[in-house]
Amino acid sequence: MGSAVLDARAIEAAQRVADVGNVESFITDEGMEVFVEGFTTPPTLVMIGGGHVGKATADLAHNLGYRVFIIDDRPEFSNTDRFPYADQTVLANYAAWAGALDINVNSFVIAATRGHRYDDMALESALTTRARYIGLMGSRRKNMMIFQRLLRQGVSTERLKQVHAPIGLDIGALTPEEIAVSIMSEIIMVRRGGKGTPLQMDDWFVDRAASIVERKVEV
Fold first, then answer.
1. Are 166 and 142 in contact (CB under 8 A)?
2. What is the pTM of this model?
3. Model confidence over 32-55: pLDDT tens digits?
C-alpha cells in the first residue's frame, strides 16, 4: 500500500478476518477508506441432536446459507430423508463425534441431545475442536451441573467460559421454530460482530421529529 504502517495495519486486519470471512475497514490519515475481506469456507452449523429443536434450527440455518452437519446416535434422527439438505448426517457416539467431521473456526456447534441426557459428552467433544461458537441447550441449573461434571474431568474454567449457555438470545421463544430463531440470532450476532440489541430509535428521536414538524407549521 506504499507505507509500512498501512501494510502492517492491513495485514493485522487480514489475519482477523481470514478464517471467519468477515469484513473490516479503516480510514487512513489521508482519508482513504480501506476494506479487507476474508474468503473462507461457508459457515457451518453442527447440530448435535436431530430432535424437534435440532430440526427447526437446522432448517433455518440451511435457509440462511449455512452448511449443515447433523450428529445423532439414532438412525431415524440423522438421515437424508429428515435432513435432505444436510452436507453430512453422522451416526456417532456423542462422546466421539468430533473425530468424524472437519470442524474449523467457521463452525458453530450446538449441543441439544435427546432429553439433554448426553449433552455433557457432546459438549466435552465439542470443546476439543476449533469451533468459533459452542452452544448448550437447557436451563441454567442443568448447564451448571454439566459444567461441574466437566470441571471435575479436567476441563478448564476458561474454556467453559467460552460456551454459550444457555444458548440463544432472550426473545421469549417457546416453540421449536421460535427457539431456532433465538439460537440463530445469537450465532449471527457472534459471526457478524453484532450487539443483539433492538434497533428501535430512542424516544428523543421521535420528539425531535415532532419539534421539527411543529417549527415548520409555525413558519
1. no
2. 0.81
3. 677 666 656 789 999 999 999 999
